[in-house]
Amino acid sequence: MKKATDWIKSHKPHTAAIAIAIIAVVAVVIAAASGAFSTADKQNSTAKDETADLVLNVTADTGWDANSTPAIAHITSDEVDFYHAVSPEAEGNKGTSTVTLEEGDYTVDFISPVNADGSAYELFDTGEAQTVTVDADATDTLSVTCEMTRIPADKVTDEMLKGIVDQTKDAVENGDETLKGDAGKDILDKLEGNVANNPNASDETKQEATDADKEVDVDSKPEATTPSGDNGNTSDKGNANSNGNSGSNAGNSGSSNNGSSTSSKPSGGSSSQPSAPAHSHSWKDHTATKQVWVPNIVTVTDYADQQVAVGTTYIFAYDGFVTTDPGTAKAHGVELIKQGYADNYRMETIYETQRVPVGSHTEDHGHYETQTYVDYQYCDCGATR
């Protein structure tokens, strides 16, 4: 650089100016080649998708355990449409799982589990899809709660079971890693056995549950949970497998992975298709019968046994004559007087035990009648309210 300065001082001004311009151009070219002006590349290298966790909390009043099928969340937006399984914890009746989603609006609804005895659940506040907004800058954890109340097996209709079977098949076919592979096979096996144990299940519904594993491809690629992922990426699938998407952790893989194992559809795949419209429930009345007491209040007389005076005995002192008839006693006294004897006598009251009324009380002489009533409403999809 010093040599260049000395050269400029020793030459004419216009010659020096040309040389300076040439040096400046060379400097710009070198800077560009070295990336000094590549601000766009730096921005791109630090850019990332904005995501946040959605926690799925499912609770049951009773009956939900390791032998039950999981509760399955259906999560949709304008860009994704997938299912995620939530299995009960070891102590039963409670399960939690987490999915990682990109910012945006989503709808979430749930499919009822089927227990080992064929019972199912009424899903409170989730008969209609819930809407949530994922915001990466939010300070509070976003969560959805599904509260389930057990419907006894004999109250679960065949229509309800058929709806759960159909929805569970769709869920396994279009589910994320919690519904694929060994996890998906285990769910379909439990579905078959549990539906068969329900007393109201028709042969047709039982057969549909049995054939489910033949109709559903449990080994297909998991559905995308984010539109920016790549379901065809082999390394992503490996990460999903290593992070616990096997059947042993089917219901909680979203929670343990924090979304790192969820991958999206291949470029040009179904992620560009619009999500299916939200299901609109068609509610039907489910009827049951009960015995109802019809009252009939009546007044009943109370009775008691008492000693009641029913007559008098006349006993004459002179001859011991005894009679209970006053007329006879009077005539006998006259005869004694005529004969010169005393006519005196004594009287004894005659008592008899009789059952007599002593009061009253009221009694209900009603009867039972069989009445029909609506105990709940159901949709063919399996939802109840």
Plain-language structure description:
The protein has nine helices and 13 strands. The protein is an alpha+beta fold and 385 residues long. The chain folds into three domains: 2-46, no CATH class; 51-282, Sandwich (Immunoglobulin-like), CATH 2.60.40.1120; 298-364, no CATH class. The strands form four sheets. Strands 4-1-8-6 form a four-stranded mixed beta sheet. The protein starts with a helix and ends in a 7-residue tail after the last strand. The model is unreliable at 36-47 and 231-276 (pLDDT under 50).
Topology of helices and strands:
Blueprint lengths: L1 H8 L3 H22 L4 H8 L4 E10 L10 E6 L4 E6 L7 E9 L1 E8 L8 E5 L5 E5 L7 E10 L6 H16 L7 H16 L6 H13 L18 H9 L10 H5 L26 E11 L2 E20 L5 E2 L2 H13 L6 E20 L2 E12 L7
Parallel strand pairs: 1-8
Antiparallel strand pairs: 1-4, 2-3, 2-5, 5-7, 6-8, 9-13, 10-11, 10-12
Q: Helicity range of the residues? A: 25-40%
CATH topology of the largest domain: Immunoglobulin-like
- How many strands in all? 13
N/C terminus separation: 85 Å
- How large, in whole angstroms, is the Cα Rg? 47 Å
CATH-defined architecture of the largest domain: Sandwich
